[in-house]
């Protein structure tokens, strides 16, 4: 069913192109916003407008948003190389391989953690949307490392609350270009979708609070290995914050990494790994922690960059 939205143009968007204003207001890509305008699904003060028209604060916007496409259901099939770090009646912790999404999403046709667990005969909680049952947090498809999935309904509720209240300790390692100054610090910069609407995220005024703490573990000639703790868990948070510091993760072409350095180190995706995950166990109340070893590609590139230094 289509979603009808009516609202005034905020004064903060005064002078923006109509397609850009729609993109910011509704989280659409600029292309999708332009399509809605062209199809007559966008009215400004009751009249159709062109995508390049400049909006004025206080103008009335009527938008007909089509229903979102249904998310695909997980395909239950085992995933070779997805190691189980821990399993009990409440939780299962995996070392997620590269190229595996947490759960199905529109446009993703590759393997998923939830599908891999179901395909290997593991039970997961039935709470949450059907396509992401048991999922309490996510890692990007090309970010590897420790990830917990809820098996019991009690664990699902407990862990969802723990992640929301930021009582989970998440430690990442990232190999970034160059050397940070200072060697240890905090990035406190809001993140939202990139204004270009191209799938990237960016530091944006008025975005969601995002806090990243980093510490240099080892500095090499061309890059630095960082230990990173997150207070918040925004999409692409580490990648966006490191790029904003002009030290993108090695291999992260989406956020401005040097392809020459990536090729020399044999890195074909962002060098980012969720090293460990610690939280209060949903049933015992005990503080538990799990560590995930580097996958072969990251370990190899680290050896190469170390040998170059």
UniProtKB/TrEMBL annotation:
Its EC number is 5.4.99.-. One of its GO terms (molecular function) is RNA binding. The active site is at 140. Coiled coil: none annotated. SUPFAM superfamilies: Alpha-L RNA-binding motif (SSF55174), Pseudouridine synthase (SSF55120). GO terms for biological process: enzyme-directed rRNA pseudouridine synthesis. It comes from the Bacteria. It catalyses: a uridine in RNA = a pseudouridine in RNA. Keywords: Isomerase, RNA-binding. NCBIfam families: rluA_subfam (TIGR00005). Belongs to the pseudouridine synthase RluA family. This is Pseudouridine synthase.
